[in-house]
Amino acid sequence: MTALGKIPARPQAPDSSVLRGDKWRVTVLTDGLLRLEWSDDGAFEDRASSFALHRDFATPRFTVRDGEALEVSTSRFHLLYDRREFSANGLVVTSPTGGRWHFGERLDNLGGTARTLDDADGRTPLDNGVTARGGIAVIDDSASFLFDAEGWIAPREPGRVDLYVFAYGRDHTAAVRALYDLSGHPPVLPRWALGNWWSRFHAYTSDEYLELFDRFAADNLPFSVAVIDMDWHRVGSVPARYGTGWTGYSWERSLIPEPPAFLEELHRRSLRTTLNLHPADGVRPFEDAYPDMARAVGVDPASGATIPFDLTDRTFLDAYFRILHHPLEDQGVDFWWIDWQQGTTSRVPGVDPLWLLNHFHFLDSGRDGRRPMAFSRYAGPGSHRYGVGFSGDTVVSWASLDFQPEFTATAANIGYSWWSHDIGGHTRGVRDDELATRWLQLGVFSPILRLHSANNPFIRKEPWQFPLEARQAMGEALRLRHRLVPYLHTMNHRAAEGVPLVRPMYHLEPDREEAYQVPNQFSFGSELIVAPITSPRDPVTLLGSATAWLPPGTWTDIFTGTVYSGDRQVELHRNLAGVPALLRSGGILPLTGEKDLDATRNPEHLEVLVAPTDSGAFTLVEDDGQGDGTDLRTVTTLLEWDADRARLTIGAAEGPAGIVPAARTWTVTFLADLPSGPPLIDGEPAELTGEAGRFSVTVRADTTSATTVEVKLTAPVSADHATANIERILTVAQTDNPLKLEMWRVVTSAQPLSAKIAALHALHPPAPLLGAVVEQLATQAG
Fold first, then answer.
1. 435, 401 in Cβ contact below 8 A?
2. Residue 479: in which H helix or E strand, if any?
3. Exposure string (b/e) for 169-204, b if CB count within 10 Å is 16 or more?
4. Which of 137, 292, 307, 550 has its CB surrounded by the most CB atoms within 10 Å?
């Protein structure tokens, strides 16, 4: 095996979990997870597969009835099997929730994700995940390749069936945790990966690229990752006899004459750098590294023979990293963008080159105790282990945008938690400034925010390329993303433990039918639900809208401060300044301070948003950015809101010294009306800033001790601001002024709510205007 090492695997299930016959084997891995195998030759596979690394689960409690048919039962499933070659009549799994699966039957799977969105203009088919409406999902692992004891790849033997049945009923969260326990958990990404990524297919010179980021900094537009597309290497200067410049490993010196100095300047600007990689054409004689590469694989450099790309060859694999990539990393390249588009076949049957690229790049990136990081396409179940996904080249259209939230959230069903999309769309389409803005706002609440554009001078993403309204909204979105990094990094650690950042609503409320009817709405970590706006705004109200279902409880919009009672459907209307992002009752949302936007370090200034309608707690998790995922050094800070005492406690930082600042400035912002008296910091009166609906208290404190902030909230904590909001809606509305006056008279009348709504309907206003007004009237209605 090369110096790349091997992925940790514990593939052997305990004998106490296994039932077997001459040609069949049943393994009860957990109370909701079965492995079913059929083998024509009577031999079974105990090596790890690219999907299933760990089968050493503690034997769960199960019962066996060995009669005419084999029956196996746990609290979550019942298996009936006739001990013959698998068939629809002879193998049945049922769930107490009513689900039933006959072998070979198509299930009502809730979907997983797809390999790519290249050229997708709207919906695209999804592969299966491990969740289903009926409670049973099946992953067919029969064709995936294997890892031997050294971690090297091996093909499957033909004539064998290898299935994993996830029978978790409607406990979708448990199904995903079981997937991770079986297949390996996602990595903890580097903190900087959670900030804004800039990517554009454009032949930048090093000076142009640095000037671009200086312009971003001057406009207070933060970025943490600089993505350099394929023009970093020789493209147009490749001699014609070698074909295209799609593949390359040598800097294009006419654009970037001094690569180490260029990369150092990017690092000085707190940026991490990734380079685009299309390896399919191998290594050709014009490459700087060709002589060393040729000698390493046994080719005479004088022959001029192209060295074919083949990661199934151990000698090539070793040289591929050691000679082609490590020297560039020594110059300052932080990680690689693996842009494989050349099919699924290799010299070894069943081995997908994309799988190998993802697997070995990720392992190599974690050498010498580094935090591993890779950026590539989805290669199938198990791909969640390998860093950040790349969705492919999306079309610039509203149809594409409208599919993105569902596509991102549904990926949680196969554990693929770190999707990176082409924010704003990549190719084709038409220019639409509102579309670009709404897509970027979705990006704020996506796992990764990466702007990307095609090699077209008229497809641009720099905010200054847009008119004032869009430009301002885009700038606020980019800044908010960096302010969210403390929250995102905490969720990053949570995702590695088993709960993806972005999840469909039915993961939160699996027994509510309404949760399955809002595919574009999702939970964003533990504190927020988001309903992005993915369609053009109404020409009358100038507002975009999204239909949402609010779970039971109280929900507060972090942008508008509007408080909504839950357990109901609602249509949410917003101008171009923001999208509905609702903080749960008692929710605590940690942000960086407004000027502390460097995503590469733990901040000195933090702001904490509190929805004070109920008690709640949040544990902030930070780390030192080191370690390969098995030995992370973390610091935790407990933030606890006691609604009865109206007190927020900022706990002492718990963990190794030196990871977080010794002292911090904390701004505590309450999404509530102004208190009836001065706030208290550790019992002493303090000043506040703000206005009705949102006020803040700031304190400077050592991180080694706890600090309390007490406020005298009024009841209710947020009064009814509907009338003022409706006045603003009617003022902006592009419609008949007498009609607006009549609507205003109804709104400001003394009639009960039901009578007001009936009277507004009777005026026959445009439906979007009526909807926006009624939303405000009914914000806290049950």
1. yes
2. helix 468-483
3. bbbbbbbbbbbbbbbbbbbbbbbbbbbbbbbbbbeb
4. 137
For residues 607 and 698, what is the distance between their CA atoms, to the nearest angstrom?
9
- Written as six digits, the tokens of 162 are 């290898």
Residue % of the chain over a pLDDT of 90: 93
Contact (CB, 8 A) for 213 and 228: no
pLDDT band at 47 (very low <50, low <70, confident <90, very high): very high
Secondary structure class of 160 (helix, strand, coil): strand
> What pLDDT sits at residue 690?
94
Which class for 668: exposed (0-12), middle (13-18), buried (19 or more C-beta within 10 A)?
Answer: buried
What would the mean pLDDT of 764-769 be, rounded to a whole number?
97
CA gap 591, 587 in Å, rounded: 13
Contact 621, 646 (CB under 8 A): no
Full-prediction pTM beyond 0.85? yes
Q: Is the pLDDT of residue 272 over 90?
A: yes
Helix (H, G, I), strand (E, B) or coil at 252: coil
d(CA 314, CA 561) in angstroms, rounded, equals 58
List of E strands, 40-154:
48-49, 63-66, 70-73, 78-81, 91-94, 100-102, 137-140, 146-147, 153-154
- Tokens representing residue 572 in the block: 């949410």
8-state DSSP, 536? P
What does the pLDDT look like over 680-735, one tens digit per residue?
Answer: 999 999 999 998 899 999 999 999 999 999 999 988 877 778 999 999 999 999 99
Q: Tell me the β-bridge partners of 555.
A: 564, 584
Mean model confidence pLDDT for the chain: 96
pLDDT tens-place string over residues 658-683: 999 999 999 999 999 999 999 999 99
Give the tokens for residue 23: 């040609």
Cα 406 to chain centroid distance, Å, stands at 12
pLDDT for the residue numbered 750:
94
In the DSSP assignment, the letter for residue 213 is H
Q: What is the DSSP letter of 753?
A: H
Confidence of residue 781 (pLDDT cuts 50, 70, 90): low
Residue 743 near residue 730 (C-beta atoms within 8 A): yes
Tell me the pLDDT tens digit for each residue of 222-237. 999 999 999 999 999 9
CA-to-CA separations, 143 to 178, 355, 758, in angstroms, rounded: 21, 13, 61
Q: What does the alpha-carbon distance between residue 743 and residue 344 come to, in Å, rounded to a whole number? A: 61
Give dist(CA 12, CA 97) in Å, integer: 31
CA 578, 583, 588, 591: dihedral to nearest 10 degrees?
A: -10
Q: Is 647 exposed, middle or buried (CB count within 10 Å of its CB: 0-12, 13-18, 19+)?
A: middle
* Cα-Cα end-to-end distance for the chain: 64
- Asked if 222 contacts 214 with a C-beta cutoff of 8 angstroms, the reply is no
Average pLDDT over residues 337-346: 93
Q: Where are the alpha helices (DSSP H) in 523-631?
A: none
